[in-house]
Amino acid sequence: MVHLKTDQAIDEMRAAGRVVAHALTAVREAARVGTSLLELDAVARAVLRDARATSPFLGYRPHFAPVPFPAVVCASVNDAIVHGVPGGYRLRDGDLVSIDCGARLRGWVGDAAVSFPVGRPRPADLRLIATAEAALAAGIAAAVPGNRIGDIAHAVGSVCRAAGYGIPEGFGGHGVGRGMHEDPGVPNEGPPGRGMKLRPGMVLAIEPMLIAGGGDDYACDPDGWTLRTTDGSRAAHVEHTVAITAGGPRILTAP
């Protein structure tokens, strides 16, 4: 069931989104060569604590997960696509990092992700990140009343495929509200003009995930969470929480 949000609720979600944006900025600034993923998680925890927000990630356990998620961010490095579990790994020069973070504030959730290089960036990584961000922008531009979910999916997928990148099947965006994952699902590829019609009050997480090697295959690590490319190529993941409004899309997790 899709829950339409009032203007007041969307304003509350914007407040949660600002916390997410602050956490992602702080984590990115802390992500230097030698920093561990656990230390990045601690940075995000401090931002949430100072904002009196909680994490919708911490303790989350969907049906596929063998254990609850143990952190407040997903930290995915190089060939990890999404859902990376922060651990003792220390960042190295040239790593490609994707950080996904959520915040719950006064009962409302924000959810966003960024990808960035550490140290000296590889040109191929910069192209991958730029394409992911362009796909996200295209998806957001399609998030207007009267369009359909398929229009967002087609906009995202077209940018990714035109650049020669793969898209992990079965993973994409989702509704956001009181819960981190609500209806409807928002695929990263699909035919335009299909699916649920977009209406003011809908709030969606749009999140392109790109595989540099061009294939769509992935495998799950033994931790039951981290998804990796099967060809060993690098991946990027970006995301914003976006409200559908009569005046156009409103990005709730913008800095």
From TrEMBL:
GO molecular function: initiator methionyl aminopeptidase activity
Residues that hold a divalent metal cation 2 according to the record: D111, H174, E207, E239
Location of the Peptidase M24 domain: 12-246
Gene3D superfamilies assigned to the protein according to its UniProt record, in alphabetical order: Creatinase/methionine aminopeptidase superfamily
Domain of life: Bacteria
Catalytic reaction(s) noted: Release of N-terminal amino acids, preferentially methionine, from peptides and arylamides
Top EC class for this record: hydrolase
Binding annotation for a divalent metal cation 1: D100, D111, E239
Cofactor mode of binding and number, as noted: Binds 2 divalent metal cations per subunit. Has a high-affinity and a low affinity metal-binding site. The true nature of the physiological cofactor is under debate. The enzyme is active with cobalt, zinc, manganese or divalent iron ions. Most likely, methionine aminopeptidases function as mononuclear Fe(2+)-metalloproteases under physiological conditions, and the catalytically relevant metal-binding site has been assigned to the histidine-containing high-affinity site.
Cofactor: Co(2+); Zn(2+); Mn(2+); Fe(2+)
Residues given in the record as substrate binding sites: H83, H181
UniProt EC number: 3.4.11.18
UniProt keyword annotations, A-Z: Aminopeptidase, Hydrolase, Metal-binding, Protease
UniProt family annotation: Belongs to the peptidase M24A family. Methionine aminopeptidase type 1 subfamily.
Role summary: Removes the N-terminal methionine from nascent proteins. The N-terminal methionine is often cleaved when the second residue in the primary sequence is small and uncharged (Met-Ala-, Cys, Gly, Pro, Ser, Thr, or Val). Requires deformylation of the N(alpha)-formylated initiator methionine before it can be hydrolyzed.
Subunit structure of this chain's protein: Monomer.
Protein known as: Methionine aminopeptidase
